[in-house]
Fold this sequence. Notes:
Number of helices: 5
Bound molecules: adenosine-5'-triphosphate, biotin
InterPro entries: aa-tRNA-synth_II/BPL/LPL, Biotin_CoA_COase_ligase, BPL_C, BPL_LPL_catalytic, Transcriptional_repressor_C
CATH topology of the largest domain: BirA Bifunctional Protein, domain 2
Radius of gyration: 17 Å
CATH architecture of the largest domain: 2-Layer Sandwich
GO molecular function: ATP binding; biotin--[biotin carboxyl-carrier protein] ligase activity
Protein name: Biotin--protein ligase
Low-confidence stretches: none
Strand order of the largest sheet: 1-2-3-7-6-5-4
Largest sheet: 7 strands, mixed
Strand content: 25-35%
CATH class of the largest domain: Alpha Beta
Enzyme class: ligase
EC number: 6.3.4.15
Amino acid sequence: MKRIVGVKVIQLDEVGSTNEYAKTIAHEAPEGTVVIAKRQTAGRGRKGRSWASPEGGIWMSVILKPPRVDPRLAFVGALAVVDTLADFGISAGIKWPNDVWVGGRKVSGILAEGKAGEYSILGIGLNVNNPIPEELKDNATSMMELIGSKLPLEKVLKRLLLHLDGWYRVFLERPDLLMAKVRERTFILGKPVTVIEGEERISGIALDVLDDGSLLMDIGGQLRRITYGDVSLRLF
Ligand code: ATP
Ligand code: BTN
Protein backbone atom coordinates (compact mmCIF):
# COMPACT_ATOMS: atom_id res chain seq x y z
CA MET A 1 0.00 0.00 0.00
CA LYS A 2 1.36 3.43 -0.93
CA ARG A 3 2.05 5.52 2.13
CA ILE A 4 0.26 8.82 2.58
CA VAL A 5 1.92 10.38 5.62
CA GLY A 6 5.58 10.99 4.84
CA VAL A 7 5.23 10.78 1.06
CA LYS A 8 7.42 13.89 1.13
CA VAL A 9 9.41 15.21 4.10
CA ILE A 10 10.65 18.79 4.30
CA GLN A 11 13.36 19.13 6.95
CA LEU A 12 14.15 22.59 8.26
CA ASP A 13 16.75 23.69 10.79
CA GLU A 14 14.69 26.54 12.17
CA VAL A 15 11.25 27.96 11.53
CA GLY A 16 8.70 30.06 13.41
CA SER A 17 6.05 27.36 13.48
CA THR A 18 5.82 24.26 11.29
CA ASN A 19 2.01 24.68 11.23
CA GLU A 20 2.39 28.19 9.78
CA TYR A 21 5.01 27.02 7.28
CA ALA A 22 2.82 24.10 6.23
CA LYS A 23 -0.10 26.47 5.55
CA THR A 24 2.00 28.47 3.09
CA ILE A 25 2.71 25.39 0.94
CA ALA A 26 -0.48 23.41 1.60
CA HIS A 27 -2.07 24.12 -1.78
CA GLU A 28 0.77 22.81 -3.92
CA ALA A 29 2.05 20.12 -1.54
CA PRO A 30 0.90 16.55 -2.06
CA GLU A 31 -1.26 15.10 0.70
CA GLY A 32 0.89 13.57 3.42
CA THR A 33 3.73 16.10 3.11
CA VAL A 34 5.51 16.47 6.43
CA VAL A 35 7.25 19.65 7.56
CA ILE A 36 9.67 19.07 10.41
CA ALA A 37 12.02 21.49 12.12
CA LYS A 38 14.92 21.08 14.53
CA ARG A 39 13.77 24.20 16.38
CA GLN A 40 10.75 26.46 16.31
CA THR A 41 11.12 30.07 17.35
CA ALA A 42 7.36 30.70 17.63
CA GLY A 43 5.86 27.26 18.32
CA ARG A 44 2.19 27.53 19.23
CA GLY A 45 -0.34 25.63 21.25
CA ARG A 46 -4.05 26.30 21.14
CA LYS A 47 -5.47 29.76 21.82
CA GLY A 48 -2.15 31.32 20.82
CA ARG A 49 -0.30 29.83 23.79
CA SER A 50 3.37 29.32 23.19
CA TRP A 51 4.93 25.90 22.75
CA ALA A 52 8.55 25.45 23.85
CA SER A 53 10.42 23.88 20.91
CA PRO A 54 14.18 23.77 21.49
CA GLU A 55 16.40 21.32 19.62
CA GLY A 56 15.96 17.65 20.52
CA GLY A 57 12.19 17.28 20.17
CA ILE A 58 9.92 16.41 17.27
CA TRP A 59 8.14 19.51 15.99
CA MET A 60 6.23 18.63 12.88
CA SER A 61 3.13 19.27 10.80
CA VAL A 62 1.42 16.99 8.30
CA ILE A 63 -0.50 18.45 5.37
CA LEU A 64 -3.64 16.39 4.85
CA LYS A 65 -6.54 16.71 2.46
CA PRO A 66 -9.42 14.76 3.97
CA PRO A 67 -12.85 15.15 2.33
CA ARG A 68 -13.92 17.58 5.07
CA VAL A 69 -12.40 19.41 8.00
CA ASP A 70 -13.00 17.13 10.94
CA PRO A 71 -11.89 17.84 14.52
CA ARG A 72 -11.35 14.11 15.06
CA LEU A 73 -8.19 14.43 12.97
CA ALA A 74 -6.40 15.50 16.17
CA PHE A 75 -6.99 11.99 17.53
CA VAL A 76 -4.97 10.56 14.62
CA GLY A 77 -2.03 12.49 16.06
CA ALA A 78 -2.75 11.53 19.67
CA LEU A 79 -3.08 7.80 18.91
CA ALA A 80 0.06 7.80 16.76
CA VAL A 81 2.01 9.45 19.59
CA VAL A 82 0.65 6.96 22.16
CA ASP A 83 1.68 4.04 19.91
CA THR A 84 5.12 5.55 19.28
CA LEU A 85 5.69 5.94 23.00
CA ALA A 86 4.61 2.32 23.50
CA ASP A 87 7.23 1.24 20.93
CA PHE A 88 9.82 2.70 23.28
CA GLY A 89 8.31 1.13 26.39
CA ILE A 90 6.38 4.17 27.62
CA SER A 91 2.76 3.77 28.60
CA ALA A 92 0.86 6.98 27.80
CA GLY A 93 -2.75 8.13 27.67
CA ILE A 94 -4.82 10.75 25.87
CA LYS A 95 -5.94 13.73 27.90
CA TRP A 96 -8.98 14.85 25.95
CA PRO A 97 -9.02 16.94 23.88
CA ASN A 98 -5.48 17.32 22.55
CA ASP A 99 -2.67 16.20 24.84
CA VAL A 100 -0.75 13.03 25.53
CA TRP A 101 0.24 12.51 29.13
CA VAL A 102 2.50 10.14 31.01
CA GLY A 103 2.24 9.87 34.79
CA GLY A 104 0.39 13.17 35.24
CA ARG A 105 2.59 15.21 32.91
CA LYS A 106 2.30 16.32 29.31
CA VAL A 107 4.74 14.76 26.86
CA SER A 108 3.03 15.81 23.63
CA GLY A 109 0.49 18.29 22.30
CA ILE A 110 -1.52 18.21 19.10
CA LEU A 111 -2.70 21.25 17.13
CA ALA A 112 -5.02 20.43 14.22
CA GLU A 113 -6.11 23.30 12.03
CA GLY A 114 -8.05 23.31 8.80
CA LYS A 115 -9.38 25.38 5.96
CA ALA A 116 -12.70 23.99 4.76
CA GLY A 117 -12.52 22.46 1.29
CA GLU A 118 -8.79 23.04 1.04
CA TYR A 119 -6.51 21.33 3.57
CA SER A 120 -5.96 20.29 7.16
CA ILE A 121 -2.73 20.68 9.10
CA LEU A 122 -1.96 18.19 11.83
CA GLY A 123 0.68 19.70 14.09
CA ILE A 124 2.46 17.49 16.61
CA GLY A 125 4.92 18.43 19.30
CA LEU A 126 6.64 15.55 21.07
CA ASN A 127 9.24 16.08 23.77
CA VAL A 128 12.02 13.58 23.05
CA ASN A 129 15.56 14.68 24.03
CA ASN A 130 14.84 18.38 24.40
CA PRO A 131 15.19 20.14 27.74
CA ILE A 132 11.94 21.11 29.48
CA PRO A 133 11.87 24.77 30.55
CA GLU A 134 12.05 25.23 34.33
CA GLU A 135 8.57 26.80 34.57
CA LEU A 136 6.96 23.78 32.85
CA LYS A 137 8.74 21.04 34.78
CA ASP A 138 5.83 20.26 37.09
CA ASN A 139 3.48 19.71 34.17
CA ALA A 140 5.67 18.53 31.30
CA THR A 141 8.07 15.67 30.64
CA SER A 142 10.11 14.19 27.80
CA MET A 143 10.83 10.69 26.54
CA MET A 144 14.46 11.12 27.64
CA GLU A 145 13.40 12.00 31.16
CA LEU A 146 11.00 9.03 31.29
CA ILE A 147 13.51 6.51 29.95
CA GLY A 148 16.60 7.95 31.58
CA SER A 149 18.70 8.18 28.42
CA LYS A 150 18.79 9.93 25.07
CA LEU A 151 16.71 8.44 22.26
CA PRO A 152 17.53 8.07 18.56
CA LEU A 153 15.42 10.93 17.19
CA GLU A 154 15.34 9.52 13.64
CA LYS A 155 13.98 6.20 14.88
CA VAL A 156 11.30 7.90 16.96
CA LEU A 157 10.28 9.97 13.92
CA LYS A 158 10.15 6.89 11.70
CA ARG A 159 7.81 5.11 14.10
CA LEU A 160 5.66 8.22 14.46
CA LEU A 161 5.25 8.61 10.68
CA LEU A 162 4.34 4.96 10.36
CA HIS A 163 1.67 5.16 13.07
CA LEU A 164 0.34 8.44 11.65
CA ASP A 165 -0.07 6.80 8.27
CA GLY A 166 -1.89 3.84 9.83
CA TRP A 167 -4.27 5.92 11.97
CA TYR A 168 -4.96 8.37 9.14
CA ARG A 169 -6.20 5.48 7.02
CA VAL A 170 -8.41 4.29 9.86
CA PHE A 171 -9.73 7.85 10.22
CA LEU A 172 -10.64 7.93 6.51
CA GLU A 173 -12.13 4.46 6.28
CA ARG A 174 -13.41 3.55 9.75
CA PRO A 175 -13.74 6.61 12.00
CA ASP A 176 -15.79 4.45 14.37
CA LEU A 177 -12.75 2.24 14.97
CA LEU A 178 -10.55 5.29 15.46
CA MET A 179 -12.93 6.55 18.13
CA ALA A 180 -13.15 3.16 19.81
CA LYS A 181 -9.37 3.25 20.23
CA VAL A 182 -9.49 6.84 21.47
CA ARG A 183 -11.99 5.77 24.13
CA GLU A 184 -9.66 2.96 25.18
CA ARG A 185 -6.67 5.29 25.44
CA THR A 186 -8.39 8.23 27.14
CA PHE A 187 -7.35 8.05 30.78
CA ILE A 188 -9.75 10.65 32.17
CA LEU A 189 -12.89 8.50 31.82
CA GLY A 190 -14.53 7.78 35.15
CA LYS A 191 -12.58 10.64 36.76
CA PRO A 192 -13.73 13.99 38.12
CA VAL A 193 -12.76 16.82 35.77
CA THR A 194 -13.44 20.50 35.21
CA VAL A 195 -13.94 21.74 31.68
CA ILE A 196 -13.30 25.43 31.04
CA GLU A 197 -15.24 26.73 28.08
CA GLY A 198 -14.84 30.49 27.74
CA GLU A 199 -16.08 31.98 31.01
CA GLU A 200 -17.88 28.80 32.03
CA ARG A 201 -16.42 26.13 34.32
CA ILE A 202 -18.20 22.79 34.21
CA SER A 203 -17.30 20.22 36.86
CA GLY A 204 -18.37 16.59 36.83
CA ILE A 205 -17.32 13.09 35.92
CA ALA A 206 -15.94 12.40 32.44
CA LEU A 207 -18.02 9.48 31.19
CA ASP A 208 -17.23 8.85 27.55
CA VAL A 209 -15.77 10.19 24.32
CA LEU A 210 -18.57 10.04 21.74
CA ASP A 211 -18.13 9.11 18.10
CA ASP A 212 -18.10 12.76 17.03
CA GLY A 213 -15.16 13.43 19.36
CA SER A 214 -17.17 15.22 22.05
CA LEU A 215 -16.87 14.45 25.76
CA LEU A 216 -19.89 13.15 27.68
CA MET A 217 -19.99 14.33 31.27
CA ASP A 218 -22.14 13.59 34.29
CA ILE A 219 -22.85 16.90 36.03
CA GLY A 220 -24.56 15.98 39.30
CA GLY A 221 -26.75 13.39 37.61
CA GLN A 222 -27.36 15.39 34.41
CA LEU A 223 -25.64 14.35 31.21
CA ARG A 224 -23.90 17.02 29.20
CA ARG A 225 -22.01 16.79 25.93
CA ILE A 226 -18.96 19.02 25.57
CA THR A 227 -18.13 19.66 21.93
CA TYR A 228 -14.56 19.22 20.83
CA GLY A 229 -13.12 22.69 20.45
CA ASP A 230 -11.17 25.31 22.29
CA VAL A 231 -11.94 23.92 25.72
CA SER A 232 -9.49 23.25 28.52
CA LEU A 233 -9.74 20.33 30.86
CA ARG A 234 -8.40 20.08 34.39
CA LEU A 235 -8.18 16.97 36.52
CA PHE A 236 -8.75 17.32 40.21
P1 ATP B 1 -5.56 22.57 28.03
O1 ATP B 1 -5.23 21.67 26.90
O2 ATP B 1 -6.22 21.87 29.16
O3 ATP B 1 -6.23 23.83 27.62
P2 ATP B 1 -2.86 23.12 28.13
O4 ATP B 1 -2.03 23.73 29.20
O5 ATP B 1 -2.51 21.76 27.65
O6 ATP B 1 -4.28 23.14 28.67
P3 ATP B 1 -2.60 23.95 25.40
O7 ATP B 1 -2.96 25.22 24.71
O8 ATP B 1 -3.21 22.69 24.92
O9 ATP B 1 -2.91 24.14 26.93
O10 ATP B 1 -1.02 23.77 25.33
C1 ATP B 1 -0.14 24.85 25.48
C2 ATP B 1 0.49 24.79 26.87
O11 ATP B 1 1.38 23.68 26.91
C3 ATP B 1 1.34 25.98 27.20
O12 ATP B 1 0.56 26.99 27.79
C4 ATP B 1 2.35 25.41 28.19
O13 ATP B 1 1.82 25.40 29.49
C5 ATP B 1 2.48 23.97 27.77
N1 ATP B 1 3.72 23.71 27.01
C6 ATP B 1 4.45 24.56 26.23
N2 ATP B 1 5.48 23.94 25.65
C7 ATP B 1 5.44 22.66 26.08
C8 ATP B 1 6.24 21.52 25.83
N3 ATP B 1 7.29 21.53 25.01
N4 ATP B 1 5.88 20.37 26.46
C9 ATP B 1 4.81 20.30 27.29
N5 ATP B 1 4.02 21.35 27.55
C10 ATP B 1 4.32 22.51 26.96
C1 BTN C 1 -1.06 22.12 22.45
O1 BTN C 1 -0.80 21.32 23.35
O2 BTN C 1 -1.79 23.10 22.62
C2 BTN C 1 -0.60 21.85 21.06
C3 BTN C 1 0.87 22.02 20.88
C4 BTN C 1 1.26 21.76 19.45
C5 BTN C 1 2.71 21.96 19.16
C6 BTN C 1 3.08 21.58 17.77
S1 BTN C 1 4.83 21.61 17.49
C7 BTN C 1 4.60 21.48 15.76
C8 BTN C 1 3.42 22.36 15.41
N1 BTN C 1 3.84 23.72 15.20
C9 BTN C 1 3.33 24.55 16.12
O3 BTN C 1 3.55 25.77 16.17
N2 BTN C 1 2.55 23.86 16.97
C10 BTN C 1 2.51 22.45 16.65
